[in-house]
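Dear support,

Our group has been running a series of protein-ligand predictions, and this particular one with zinc ion is the one our PI (initials K.S.) wants archived with full inputs and outputs. We had some confusion internally about which version of the output was final, so please treat the block below as the authoritative record. The input we submitted was:
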Amino acid sequence: MEVNNIIDHLTQHGVKPSPQRLNIYKYLIEEKNHPTVDTIFKDLIGAMPTLSKTTVYNTLKLFIDKGVAKVINIENNETRYDADTSIHGHFKCEKCLKVFDINIDMSEIKTLDISGFLIKETHFYLKGICKKCRSD
Ligand SMILES: [Zn+2]
Ligand SMILES: [Zn+2]
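Confirmed final output from the archive:
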């Protein structure tokens, strides 16, 4: 996504694109690393010296509320964030601790009869060892 598109995307979802919000959203889109608040703070503080962890946290909370980002709770004790809000799964490698995107074909997924249920969130989590770590 280009910067102009990011501004449009945020504006369309009711997020006023302040420079800080733009930088944090751009980071999510470009890095695709499913970061925690700490990771974002650590990576952006150099370029944004006035940034605080509270700002990062509040910005992400706003992104979630407005539907431009999703929470990934693959571990109980860490919350990660993803700007890709399409339905896809996540694989966490226990060695390098990276979280990878996994494509999911929803039409191939068989569920029990849940007609009448309202699905608000969809999460697919897989854990194991990634290809690279297996060959190391
Ligand atoms: Zn790995
Ligand atoms: Zn993802």
